[in-house]
Amino acid sequence: PADLLAAARRSAEANLIATLSAVCIDHDSRVADRADRSTAFHEGLISLVQKAPVTHQAYLSDGTVEIELTMKMNGGFSQFVLPEEIRQIDSVTTLLSSKAPDGGVTAEPHTGLIIDAGGLDARPCMVPVVVDENQAVVYGPAFVSREFAVSHGMSGYATTVAAARSDKRVGDRPLIVKAIRTGPAGNANLIISGTDAARLRSSVVNLKLLKACRVSIVMDPKGHP
Question: What is the pTM assigned to this prediction?
Answer without folding.
Answer: 0.81
